Amino acid sequence: MLGSRKEPARVPGLMPDPMPDAPALPEGPPATSLRRALRILSDPWTMLILKEAFNGTRRFSAFQRALNIPKQTLSLRLTALCHEQMLYRRFPAPQSGGTQAAPEYAPTAKTFDLADAMYAIWLWHRANPGVEEVLPFDIIHKSCGHLLEADYCCTACGGPAHSTSVTIQRSQPEQVETEPRPRLARRNDASFTATSSQSGGMVAASLVGDLPCNEILFLLFQGPRHPLAITQELALGAPVVRDRLDKLKALNLVREEVQGRRLVYHLLPRAEGFFPLLLAIADWGDRWCNDGQPPPDPRIHACGAILRGRYRCRHCAEWVSRDQLELRFHG
Ligand SMILES: [Zn+2]
Ligand SMILES: [Zn+2]
Question: Which ligand neighbours the alpha carbon of 303 most closely?
């Protein structure tokens, strides 16, 4: 009886918390494009490496210098990203003396297609104080000459995609993710804080590096939740949920509220900047991670269209495209 998916939702508070580090739960987490995308992206280093690749870094040694990342770790991540066809190795033409130059790791179309998520990270940091060392460059919109300020908008109607104007559907509610969770809990705590501090508080990129944080945020965008509801809806262990809620609280992204005998978690306004980031990642997941199948969780915009979001410049109202952007490094 327990664990049958036909059962009505269990009453919160009546079910004991699952054991810490309990073996695989009987039901997998719901299949979503966000989760499928995060299976590739949610590693504390991966987004940072991709960010560097976006900014033009190509050589192993240059990645290593820019990120201060251990060689072995970098080597594993680059190999994984090549395996996912997000980077490819290429050999520059031999130099005049005939010596072969070191291989380069170049981004593929799949990586460039993640551009909106990269802008979301930059814009989030831009809008939040204490970012000088995190953002050593400005992004200029060449079309109008302004520093990039942009809103994530629906390409069908042009209206902004806010958490209040987007509804997430489950087109295949019975579909659950059967693939094992990527390395979780074991080492996430240490690396989470390590990455945030080593890279000068890359809060947004570090959050993307943690799958449960993203899934919890995405769920809370759909409405406040009790922790037990979160564990059930995402099929995550209770200790993981508690730990991530504490982190999100420490980052001032969620607040807790006592309702009767229960704690309910709400998003704080500061979290809204993460919504386009998660939408952009889910959108990318629709295109690259569903084996050509329709997305299991289409997002519907207030206008009724399936949301296909893009950034739109606040100054000139043009859709932001990579060839119209210029990085200007400080100093
Ligand atoms: Zn729309
Ligand atoms: Zn512009």
Answer: 1
Tell me whether residue 35 is in a domain: no
CA of 62 to the centre of ligand 1 (A): 41
Question: What is the residue range of 156's domain?
Answer: 111-273
Q: Kindly state the tokens that stand for 160.
A: 């902004």
Residue 220 in domain = yes
Residue with tokens 């987490």: 29
Q: 56 C-alpha to center of ligand 2: Å?
A: 22
Residue 188 belongs to some domain of the structure: yes
CA geometry: angle at 279 spanning 278 and 285, to 5°? 90
For the chain, which ranges sit under pLDDT 70?
1-27, 129-135, 173, 179-202, 205, 331
Please answer whether residues 143 and 316 qualify as being in contact, where contact means their C-beta atoms are separated by less than 8 angstroms: yes
> How many structural domains compose the chain?
1
- Alpha-carbon distance of 87 to 114, in angstroms, equals 13
- For residues 3-19, one letter each, b for 16 or more C-beta atoms within 10 angstroms of the residue's C-beta and e for the rest, the string is eeeeeeeeeeeeeeebe
| Ligand 1 center–CA 303 separation, angstroms | 4
Residues around the ion ligand 2 (C-beta < 5 A): 141, 143-144, 313, 315-316
Question: Which amino acid type is present at position 287?
Answer: R
**Predicted confidence (pLDDT) per residue in 221-248, tens digit:** 999 999 999 999 998 999 999 999 998 9
CATH number of the domain to which 170 belongs:
1.10.10.10
Q: Per the domain annotation, does 201 fall within a domain?
A: yes
